[in-house]
User: Which sequence fits this backbone?
């Protein structure tokens, strides 16, 4: 087991790298489909990290969590999106955003470095192998919030929310790997319901407003209401 | 056991409401379940006030003073809003749409009832998240482009807040590694002195930012006036009256934990964040053009007042804070019922379009004026008493700057609210075009207004001893 | 010492002799994947022989730069070959003459002269391609810097021979910084060697060319040297990637000539595997629009920065 630990830590680090990379991808990809793909990749990295921490720190509960996360995040949620916002995903392929891609990437890099320093405030990981999870998870959280701010369309915004939640969990499993199983199980189900409800809301938006460019919704403003 | 019955009632009602059984079944079941919830939670609250324990599952579902107060408020407002829905939502022709409204309504109430009962923070997070999610459909119920837009802003911002707060709750769990106590609100208070301040501080900040967005604290309040103006009025009453309060309750639960650690000046945070919300909301009230938005901004203001009061510290200020929670929930839900009645009468949300309401519809005009006076904090109504007790306790605690600002903002908001409502209720009514018959208000709306107004008036002059004890226990819950 | 110099020369010979073969295999495989037959893998050798036997035509407006450039382009990769591990895992005679930055500069010198030569003649397509190459180069430069500095930070050295020893252990091999750096470097190779999706090496449409248009004015032996130099540059980049950055697996550890000769097929096998990856990339992607190249390199930049961050966090 002890010889395995450094390898596990390295693989966990790799998952962290992929996690961070896909957070950048979410922000920078031009394609709706690409957004979903990067979300899948990010969720897989999260699942991998949960799994590795479960083995490395001997928390058998986490294996169940990893399995549940695996079925819900990379499989069920994209399936739901495909079901409810089919038009959105396939007819409109390219998405635009408020900032252009190179500058939003630069801002994202700055956010990542900020997260590195902010992570000092958070409690350190429970075991040394999870050290990398805390700053990377925090960076994922910040990048998700930034994605939410620069994207103007329904599905990418929804995925931005999931990215924030992924970031929270990514840091969380390292900080508190022994969270009660009931609570850990509740988190992915919560995301599933969010995907379902917001998927339906997106569809209603498409029907009622005629666009899913939610950034263009401006009728409700102070003094601007008709 | 009682707690499980309270939780089961709305769940059963949600199930029955979703079945196609005729137009009257869903509202009737909902109302029945809501009345049942009020009675049982009232009994549970009495038990708690008498000093006995109400426990569902030890360490997971328990009820203390603060929880019992919130539970009672959710049940009461859930009941009055259900009654108001009866006549208000009946305009909806599509009965499938109607059924979905009632089943979502019951689920929404279920989630809100669960929050004060749960004592395990991670499950509290889940319950709060569920309140947000079940609220989305209700906000979008009118199905106009504006309502959909409001629902979108509401869901994106508040769910984002929830996702951020999640990390805070996980960090909070870390505290259990510092000692041998269960992961509950009470357990965390006993642990707090041993926990490193970094854990508590970062958890609090994440929860404050994340749930602050849900509770409508400035600067993440932007969704609140949109959602609270576009949702159907009974839903607004729930959202403004208890949903925001329930979320704020979770933030307030953090204060005793941080105070118990003895190293973090969390009260200062609460006062600063609270005062910013009060101030910004007070000035935003002055320039609204929509009377439902007016009440929505008033909610932001009151959330700030409660947070400030909780931050002032001391038994008197804590008593003022929980008293304000009670009065705000009751009064604000009444305000939205009044606004809903006005909507039914004049069919517009614009302040500028309404003149001489008291002549066109004496019921709506009186209700709106009464609600405005009550929420603005005029004596001798309930909100005045709680605001006054907060100010007095603050002066006794020598927080002169904070109290000065708070008083000034409350006065600004007072004049803002009354200025707008004055224009609406008095003055010359615009001539009603030709054949338009005066709108006949549904009986249930009038009934709701009377039922909702009663506690506001009564609490202004008389405080029942059990309620007083409950408030004292709730205030102790903030202090520990 | 003589043996060390000898091995060094052997490496140079290896690169000079096999560079056309690698290009030939790559071209052939690509055609096969697209279900065509394709030219023989020895076609680049035949091309070179043909070019050497032809007369060279030089524009009368061209200056000495135009005439010198083919030699610079040909010699630059050879210099770099002496600095990097091609066949042996231990440092050879010239290994400490320059580090990875030095090697990068020498390769860039070849590119610099090729650009000058393209501008030197009055051909309108030359300067166009040259400016595009510079654009790609400018964008690739920061990625190169971050990749090299991160590598040297982690390995504690900028000498390629020392860097490669670092990836031998299993945990280090799977370290996030390592894997991500390799990904970033592969993207760089695609940009720097003018492969799809940045540039199409087999395109014949002058307006769309980036790299190839610089050679338009060359003929005869000058053309042969330019082509050969380009092929060697690709091989050298592959060697840096495979032997220095990915894993030193297959390199000779022993001092005897037999060990070194045995390393040659093993290294060729590694290169073959990488060619397969390259073929998959080239066949599954389309060439990017010119202004999207910046986004491609932006992605490489982000990857390298993520590698740097995760690399720094571990320590």
Assistant:
């Amino acid at each position: 087991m002890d010889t395995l630990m450094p390898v596990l830590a390295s693989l966990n680090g790799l998952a962290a790298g992929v996690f961070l990379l896909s957070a950048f991808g979410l922000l920078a990809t031009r394609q709706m489909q690409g957004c979903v793909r990067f979300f899948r990749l990010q969720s897989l990295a999260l699942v991998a990290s949960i799994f590795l921490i479960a083995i490395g720190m001997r928390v058998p509960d986490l294996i169940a969590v990893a399995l549940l996360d695996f079925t819900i995040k990379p499989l069920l949620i994209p399936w739901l999106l495909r079901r409810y916002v089919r038009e959105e995903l396939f007819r409109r392929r390219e998405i635009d955003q408020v900032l252009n891609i190179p500058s939003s990437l630069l801002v994202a890099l700055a956010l990542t470095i900020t997260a590195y320093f902010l992570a000092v405030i958070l409690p350190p990981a429970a075991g040394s192998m999870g050290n990398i999870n805390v700053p990377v998870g925090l960076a994922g959280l910040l990048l998700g919030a930034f994605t939410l701010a620069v994207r103007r369309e329904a599905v990418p915004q929804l995925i931005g929310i999931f990215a924030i939640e992924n970031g929270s969990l990514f840091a969380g499993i390292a900080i508190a790997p022994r969270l009660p199983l009931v609570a850990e199980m509740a988190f992915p189900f919560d995301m599933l319901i969010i995907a379902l409800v917001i998927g339906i809301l997106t569809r209603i938006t498409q029907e009622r407003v005629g666009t899913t460019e939610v950034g263009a919704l401006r009728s409700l403003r102070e003094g601007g209401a008709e | 056991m009682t707690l499980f019955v309270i939780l089961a009632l709305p769940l059963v009602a949600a199930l029955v409401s979703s079945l196609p059984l005729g137009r009257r079944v869903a509202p009737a079941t909902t109302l029945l379940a809501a009345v049942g919830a009020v009675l049982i939670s009232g009994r549970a609250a009495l038990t708690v006030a008498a000093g006995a324990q109400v426990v569902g599952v030890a360490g997971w579902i328990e009820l203390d003073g603060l929880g019992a107060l919130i539970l009672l408020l959710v049940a009461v407002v859930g009941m009055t809003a259900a009654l108001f829905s009866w006549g208000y939502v009946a305009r909806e022709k599509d009965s499938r749409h109607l059924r979905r409204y009632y089943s979502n309504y019951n689920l929404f109430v279920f989630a809100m009832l669960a929050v004060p009962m749960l004592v395990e923070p991670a499950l509290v997070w889940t319950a709060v998240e569920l309140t947000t999610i079940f609220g989305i459909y209700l906000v979008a119920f009118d199905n106009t482009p504006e309502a959909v837009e409001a629902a979108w802003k509401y869901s994106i911002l508040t769910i984002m807040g929830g996702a951020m707060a999640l990390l805070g709750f996980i960090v909070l769990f870390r505290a259990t590694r510092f000692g041998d106590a269960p992961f509950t609100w009470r357990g965390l208070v006993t642990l707090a002195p041993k926990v490193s301040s970094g854990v508590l501080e970062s958890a609090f900040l994440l929860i404050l930012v994340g749930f602050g967005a849900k509770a409508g604290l400035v600067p993440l309040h932007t969704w609140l006036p949109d959602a609270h103006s576009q949702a159907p009025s009974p839903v607004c009453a729930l959202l403004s009256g208890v949903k925001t309060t329930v979320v704020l309750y979770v933030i307030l639960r953090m204060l005793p934990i941080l105070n118990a650690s003895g190293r973090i000046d969390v009260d200062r945070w609460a006062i600063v964040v609270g005062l910013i919300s009060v101030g910004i909301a007070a000035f935003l009230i002055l320039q609204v053009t929509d009377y439902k938005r007016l009440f929505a901004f008033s909610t932001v203001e009151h959330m700030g007042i409660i947070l400030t009061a909780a931050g002032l510290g001391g038994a008197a200020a804590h008593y003022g804070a929980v008293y304000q929670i009670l009065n705000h929930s009751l009064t604000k839900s009444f305000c939205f019922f009044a606004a809903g009645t006005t909507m039914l009468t004049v069919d517009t949300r614009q302040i500028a379009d309404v003149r001489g309401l008291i002549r066109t519809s004496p019921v709506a005009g009186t209700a709106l004026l009464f609600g405005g006076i009550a929420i603005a904090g005029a004596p001798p109504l309930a909100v005045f008493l709680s605001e006054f007790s907060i100010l007095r306790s603050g002066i006794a605690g020598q927080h002169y700057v904070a109290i000065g600002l708070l008083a000034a903002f409350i006065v600004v908001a007072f004049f803002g609210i009354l200025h707008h409502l004055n224009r609406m209720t008095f003055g010359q009514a615009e001539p009603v075009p030709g054949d338009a018959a005066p709108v006949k208000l549904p009986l249930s709306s009038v009934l709701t207004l009377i039922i909702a107004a009663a506690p506001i008036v009564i609490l202004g002059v008389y405080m029942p001893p059990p309620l007083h004890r409950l408030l004292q226990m709730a205030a102790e819950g903030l202090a520990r | 010492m003589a043996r060390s110099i000898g091995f060094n020369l052997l490496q140079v010979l290896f690169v000079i002799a096999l560079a056309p073969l690698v290009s030939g295999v790559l071209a052939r495989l690509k055609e096969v994947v697209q279900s065509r037959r394709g030219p023989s893998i020895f076609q680049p050798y035949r091309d070179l022989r043909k070019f050497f036997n032809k007369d060279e035509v030089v524009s009368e407006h061209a200056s000495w730069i135009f005439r010198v450039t083919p030699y610079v382009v040909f010699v630059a990769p050879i210099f770099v070959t002496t600095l990097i591990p091609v066949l042996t895992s231990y440092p050879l005679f010239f290994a400490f003459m320059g580090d990875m930055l030095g090697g990068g500069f020498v390769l860039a010198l070849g590119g610099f002269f090729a650009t000058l030569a393209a501008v030197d003649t009055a051909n309108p397509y030359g300067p166009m391609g040259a400016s595009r190459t510079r654009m790609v180069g400018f964008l690739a430069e920061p990625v190169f810097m971050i990749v090299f500095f991160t590598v040297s930070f982690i390995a504690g050295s900028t000498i390629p021979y020392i860097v490669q020893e670092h990836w031998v252990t299993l945990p280090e091999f799977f370290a996030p910084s390592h894997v991500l750096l390799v990904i970033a470097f592969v993207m760089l190779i695609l940009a720097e060697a003018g492969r799809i999706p940045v540039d199409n090496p087999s395109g014949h449409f002058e307006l769309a060319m980036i790299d190839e248009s610089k050679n338009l004015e060359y003929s005869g032996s000058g053309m042969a040297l330019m082509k050969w130099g380009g092929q060697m540059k690709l091989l050298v980049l592959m060697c840096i990637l495979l032997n220095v950055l990915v894993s030193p697996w297959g390199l000779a550890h022993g001092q005897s000539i037999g060990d070194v000769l045995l390393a040659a097929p093993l290294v060729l096998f590694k290169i073959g595997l990488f060619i397969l990856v390259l073929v998959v990339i080239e066949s599954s992607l389309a060439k990017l629009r010119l202004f999207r190249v910046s986004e491609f390199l932006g992605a490489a930049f982000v990857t390298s920065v993520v590698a740097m961050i995760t690399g720094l966090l571990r320590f």
Q: What stands out?
A: DSSP finds 19 helices and two strands in chain B. Chain B touches chain A through 52 residues (CB under 8 Å). The first strand of chain B starts at residue 54 and ends at 57. Chain B has one domain: 2-479.
